[in-house]
C-alpha cells in the first residue's frame, strides 16, 4: 500500500498586540483579511477592551504586517500559527473574530481545535470558495509592477505608487488600503506583504480546506448587506 505523509506545518512567531483585561472572561482575538494587518483593528480593539474589560489580541498573519515571511500560505499553516501563539499567551479558549481570509483561518481553527474557541465570529466570509468574486490577482499584478526610485521621501513614494496603481485599481479606498503595505527598508520602498507567496497560494486562499469535523460552539456570520462573499 502507498502511504502519503503530510509534512508537518512549521508555525512562525506571529507579531501581535495584546491589550490587557480581565482574565475571568475569554479574550477577543481579531484576525485580519488578505493584504491587511493587526492595525486595521486598532480603534475597535481599544473600544472593546474599554467597554468589555476583556483582553483583546490583534495579530498579523504570516506574510503580512510585521510577521515573518514564509513560502507556505495555507489555512492549515495559519491555523497552526495560532495554535502555537494562543496557549503561549494564555488566551485559550478565546472568542475568535476573523474577517475575510482571517475568517477562514478562524473557521478552520474552530473545526480543528474546538476546545480553543469559546465563540466564533466570521465577518463577510463563509467556508466555501470565493474565487469568482475576487479582484486580488489583479491587485497583486499591479502591486508587483510598481517602480519607485530609491531615496525618495515616503509621501512622494506613496503618491507615485498611487499614480501607478490608479489605471488598474480605480477605487481610491482600495488603493489606500493596499498602500498601507508600502514600507521603506534601507532607503528602498517595498511591499511588506509577501506578494510571491500570496500569488503562489492564491487558489488555496480563495478556497477552504476540506474537513469532516464540525464546530459545536456558538457561531455568528456577520456580513454587509451587499456582500458577494457570503451566499
From TrEMBL:
Record field: catalytic activity: 1,2-didecanoylglycerol + H2O = decanoylglycerol + decanoate + H(+); 1-octadecanoyl-2-(5Z,8Z,11Z,14Z-eicosatetraenoyl)-sn-glycerol + H2O = 2-(5Z,8Z,11Z,14Z-eicosatetraenoyl)-glycerol + octadecanoate + H(+); 1-octadecanoyl-2-(4Z,7Z,10Z,13Z,16Z,19Z-docosahexaenoyl)-sn-glycerol + H2O = 2-(4Z,7Z,10Z,13Z,16Z,19Z-docosahexaenoyl)-glycerol + octadecanoate + H(+); 1-octadecanoyl-2-(9Z-octadecenoyl)-sn-glycerol + H2O = 2-(9Z-octadecenoyl)-glycerol + octadecanoate + H(+)
PANTHER family: PROTEIN ABHD11
Superkingdom, natural source: Eukaryota
Uppermost EC category: hydrolase
Family: Belongs to the AB hydrolase superfamily.
Keyword Repeat found: no
The EC number(s) this enzyme carries: 3.1.1.116
Record key words, sorted: Hydrolase
This protein's name: sn-1-specific diacylglycerol lipase ABHD11
InterPro entries: AB_hydrolase_1, AB_hydrolase_fold
Function of the molecule: Catalyzes the hydrolysis of diacylglycerol in vitro and may function as a key regulator in lipid metabolism, namely by regulating the intracellular levels of diacylglycerol. 1,2-diacyl-sn-glycerols are the preferred substrate over 1,3-diacyl-sn-glycerols. The enzyme hydrolyzes stearate in preference to palmitate from the sn-1 position of 1,2-diacyl-sn-glycerols. Maintains the functional lipoylation of the 2-oxoglutarate dehydrogenase complex (OGDHc) through its interaction with the OGDHc by preventing the formation of lipoyl adducts.
Segments forming domain AB hydrolase-1: 26-130
MF-aspect GO terms: carboxylic ester hydrolase activity
Organism: Galemys pyrenaicus
Complex formation: Interacts with OGDH and DLST; this interaction maintains the functional lipoylation of the 2-oxoglutarate dehydrogenase complex.
GO cellular component: mitochondrion
